[in-house]
Amino acid sequence: MTTAPDDPHVLLGAFVLGGLSDEDHGAFTEHLRSCQACKDELGQVSGLPRLLDLAGPGGGPYITGETEPGAPGPLGGGPGSSVGSWAGSSMGSSTGWSMGSSMGSPQGSPQLAHLLDEAARQRRRTRRWLAAAAAAAAVLLFAAGAWVGPRLGTTSPSATHYTAAAASGSAAKVDIALVTRGWGTQVDIACTNMPTTGQLLLWVVDAQGTARPVASWRATEADYTTVTGATALSPEQISRVEVRTDTGTVIATATT
């Protein structure tokens, strides 16, 4: 039996049934030394050859010498094998079993090929089923994550709103929202009548008078602008929010 060397796991069935060439047998034996998955699976199916010896073509006990046309006989021999055939009460046997006088001629090769083909087909069916199940599970998990993920933090965060007062000479109108977050405060502003050139900055000032920049953006000719900043300070630690130009000129201020 020859199998692609890059997938030694598929040799397991043939290894158990004794259908490997010397080369493949040696390669798979070496593979077993380092593959725990194959060791575990081998432990689960190691009794398969004995069960096959006791099984007929239909998968049950081989109790008759009659088989369907084209179906292989019992593993290890034909009607004259040591497995025997069911003689029935007409033979006068107290046990109902008539044992053959000889082992008969082996039919190993056709039977083994049939068994290996069946094992391969079963493995392919199992793999297709597992692949389909895994794909379905992945789709369900992805859908569940997409549905649940955004809802993990669905509790509306606490927000406090303020309206900033425009500085002298400024026509800016700025609405401010301080949103409580686990990491600090999210600072959202919506503003109109802002300067149309230069760079603008959003600052927060704590009770000690320390100012920290929390956002910056380039001025545009748009009449309405929204900006979001962030600070490690909690809302209670913020005493003032200011919008400034890049030269430090205060455009609007809100006292919290």
From TrEMBL:
This is Putative zinc-finger domain-containing protein. It comes from Intrasporangium oryzae NRRL B-24470. The chain crosses the membrane at residues 129-148. Signal peptide: none annotated. Residues 59-110 are annotated as: Disordered. InterPro entries: Anti_sigma_zinc_sf (IPR041916), Znf_put (IPR027383). The keyword Lyase does not apply. Keywords: Membrane, Transcription, Transcription regulation, Transmembrane, Transmembrane helix. Residues 82-110 have a biased composition (Low complexity). The lineage of its organism: Bacteria, Bacillati, Actinomycetota, Actinomycetes, Micrococcales. Residues 11-38 form the Putative zinc-finger domain.
